[in-house]
Amino acid sequence: MTKEVEAVSEQPAEYSAKDYTDPPPTPLIDFEELTKWSLYRACIAEFIATLLFLYVTVLTVIGYKHQSDTKDGGDICGGVGILGIAWAFGGMIFVLVYCTAGISGGHINPAVTFGLFLARKVSLMRAVLYMVSQCLGAICGVGLVKAFQKAYYNRYGGGVNVMAGGHNKGVGLGAEIIGTFVLVYTVFSATDPKRSARDSHVPVLAPLPIGFAVFMVHLATIPITGTGINPARSFGAAVIYNQDKAWDEHWIFWVGPFVGAFAAAVYHQYILRAGALKALGSFRSNA
């Protein structure tokens, strides 16, 4: 087996490329998909996964703020800290992607769904239904947090994403764009079927790098925006908290992630995977 792997690795790039054919792009609009139970099962999986994601992570944020609240007998150095919050977000993404990848693809994020739609990995109708399911799941997840911890929820800001003091909106938008780029780029790389075919001898658990990407981005951007990089997460918290500060800069947490996802899709598909060169070659061959 080792000799076979070495023999393949010694072949020129042109030879190895011929051993793999990209799957055809998903149809933009597929009405037949609406008649399949698998689509609605996937939407339910996205709904439940996003609900659980928001429930655990927002509770972690609120719990940390309470434990570190010196006015309420807390310790400023107590609680899980920013590191613990980042682990909560990254760890939950790892667990939930692992659980739902075989059913819905484990998006749990409208920005991820948008990026995969641009790459023609999912149809338009599936992408829209996923985003609706994710947003509804986020609202319900934060709703459960408020139901169980109403006093702390209201006192500590409901886990909403807001700009931290000392940073302007441009900085926040840039942080969200770059953070989402890292996440969606990681999703493309971890789930690339060509990479799986080429490196089949190297076991890679796709949810692990995705969860680590979320963890690392949170470490970098929690002090700036509280870290959105997931419009459903920001939207669910804003809807349930529903105060002015939750909506004043809310657009950042939609525009930033969608721009970042767009950039990651273009980078992966047209630069790393040479989609532009393939398209140009096809055009020249037909001319």
UniProtKB/TrEMBL annotation:
Signal peptide residues on this chain, from the entry's feature table: none
A Pfam family reported for this protein in Swiss-Prot or TrEMBL: MIP
Regions that span the bilayer: 39-64, 76-103, 123-145, 204-224, 251-272
Any GO molecular function: water channel activity
The organism's place on the tree of life at top rank: Eukaryota
Positions of the UniProt region annotated as Disordered: 1-21
Localisation per UniProt entry: Membrane
Swiss-Prot/TrEMBL keywords: Membrane, Transmembrane, Transmembrane helix, Transport
Membrane topology: Multi-pass membrane protein
One GO cellular component term noted in the UniProt record for this chain: plasma membrane
Similarity remark: Belongs to the MIP/aquaporin (TC 1.A.8) family. PIP (TC 1.A.8.11) subfamily.
Entry protein name: Aquaporin PIP2 4b
Organism of provenance: Nicotiana tabacum
